[in-house]
């Protein structure tokens, strides 16, 4: 690996669409003054040494939303930028058991809310998300949920 490649290689990240039994999605907000204000984002973060993408997602969901999910569906893995080998791994998490958030000192300003999926997608279309992983995860999760619902309704061979 060349020095340039080492500099560009970053840790992967995971982003989670956590959906409760009522269909509400875990959404966080925080002030990012360096980017000009308050932004919306989904639970997620950088992978720690030795973690798989799903391990990272499980940890981040527990820390940032205080939730543990029974069901995990991968939604895809995408390059974070063209200049990095790091990838963002997207997940849909359902069957939630909720408890208290376990925020780190750098996350203490994170405010957790539970929004209907259309409201979260509207925030994405309005440019209220700071990072691209959240909007992409929401759209992919919405599609996965719709496909799952139509399969359940169709019954025979559809």
Task: Describe the overall structure.
This protein is 32% helix and 34% strand. It is of the alpha+beta class and 158 residues long. The strands form two sheets. The chain has a four-stranded mixed beta sheet, with helices on both faces. Mean pLDDT is 90; it is low at 1-8 and 154-158.
Strand segment count: 7
How many helices? 4
Biggest sheet details: 4 strands, mixed
Helicity range of the residues? 25-40%
Q: Which structural class is indicated by helix and strand composition? A: alpha+beta
| Rg (C-alpha, Å) | 16 Å
From the structure provided, what is the oligomeric state, counting identical versus distinct chains?
single chain
Strand content: 25-35%
Name the shape in a single word: globular
Q: What is the ordering of alpha helices and beta strands? A: HEEEEHEEEHH
Mean pLDDT score, rounded? 90
Q: Topology of this protein?
A:
Layout lengths: L2 H6 L4 E6 L5 E9 L4 E5 L2 E3 L6 H13 L1 E13 L7 E12 L12 E6 H9 L7 H22 L4
Helix pairs in contact: 3-4
């Amino acid at each position: 690996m060349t020095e340039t490649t080492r500099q560009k290689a970053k840790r992967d990240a995971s982003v989670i669409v956590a959906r409760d039994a009522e269909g509400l999605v875990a959404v966080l907000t925080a002030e990012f003054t360096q980017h000009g204000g308050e932004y919306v984002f989904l639970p997620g973060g950088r992978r720690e040494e030795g973690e798989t993408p799903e391990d990272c997602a499980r940890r981040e969901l527990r820390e940032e939303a205080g939730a543990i999910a029974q069901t995990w569906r991968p939604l895809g893995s995408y390059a974070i930028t063209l200049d990095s080998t790091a990838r963002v791994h997207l997940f849909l998490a359902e069957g939630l058991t909720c408890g208290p958030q376990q925020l780190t000192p750098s996350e203490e300003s994170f405010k957790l809310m539970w929004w209907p999926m259309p409201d979260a997608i509207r925030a994405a279309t309005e440019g209220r998300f700071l990072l691209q992983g959240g909007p992409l995860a929401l759209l992919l999760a919405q599609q996965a949920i719709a496909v799952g619902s139509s399969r359940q309704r169709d019954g025979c061979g559809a």
